[in-house]
Amino acid sequence: MEKEAWLFVDSGMNTPAYNMAMDEALLEWHSKGLIPPVLRFYGWNPPGLSVGYFQKVHGKIDLDAVKRYGFNLVRRQTGGRAVLHDNELTYSVIVNEDHDKMPKSVTEAYRVISKGLLNGFKELGIEADFAVPEEGKKIGQTNSAVCFDEPSWYELIVGGKKAAGSAQTRQKGVILQHGSIPIDIDDQVLFDCFIYPNDRVKERALKGFQGKAAAINDLAGRDVTLDEIKQAFYKGFETGLDIQLEPYELNEDQLKEIKELEEKYLTDEWNYSR
């Protein structure tokens, strides 16, 4: 039987604000029936620190350090904790809530979509697993503002270390799930972007973080090219979701709409209001 066709958009490297605008635009177009479900790959230039929709910035994020490193802060439409997007592959999945493949439960939808990530890691020769809580223990109960400090339901772990972080929102009858697949992680730079009561607490948090997250180059034991990673997760999502991806180029009108929407994600009102 012929597999369902989803669009595949590789939008390359863009500003944090533009990346969030494109995810929102794709969600909007899909909600109106203008496009089928979408898998998108993208990168960040300059690197960005994305904060969750409900996350507080003031008193939590060191804005001077973010500026000093040349990063751009942007608020996501999705919840969760802050993520530093630098040397990574970022993905987003846009699909109707009523799609035959999508469970009604948020956590079960995570499981289905994350099958693409699971198979992508396998394509790279990395055996990953889904994160599930131990009996009597809840996931997501730490006070850390750092996303990769702890896995959530059905995020990907390798040897107990978090290897991909994802977040999800449901708007206008559409699921948007996007996530970060680190290629390399600089722990020190990451922790410099957060505020701690004092240096001793910061060092303790940094030491505790080491061993909790893993990047592809470390897991593979070699430097893996971005193209190789894209190919692996392209195949992984096709296999995991049992779909056929069709490369798609956005037209001029669509690009113009995204560019106009980008302005929203550049405003202090949006990014710092929590």
TrEMBL record:
Keywords: Ligase. It holds the Pfam family LplA-B_cat. Residues 33-245 form the BPL/LPL catalytic domain. GO terms for molecular function: catalytic activity, acting on a protein; ligase activity; transferase activity. SUPFAM superfamilies: Class II aaRS and biotin synthetases (SSF55681). One of its GO terms (biological process) is protein lipoylation. This is Lipoate-protein ligase A. It comes from Scopulibacillus darangshiensis.
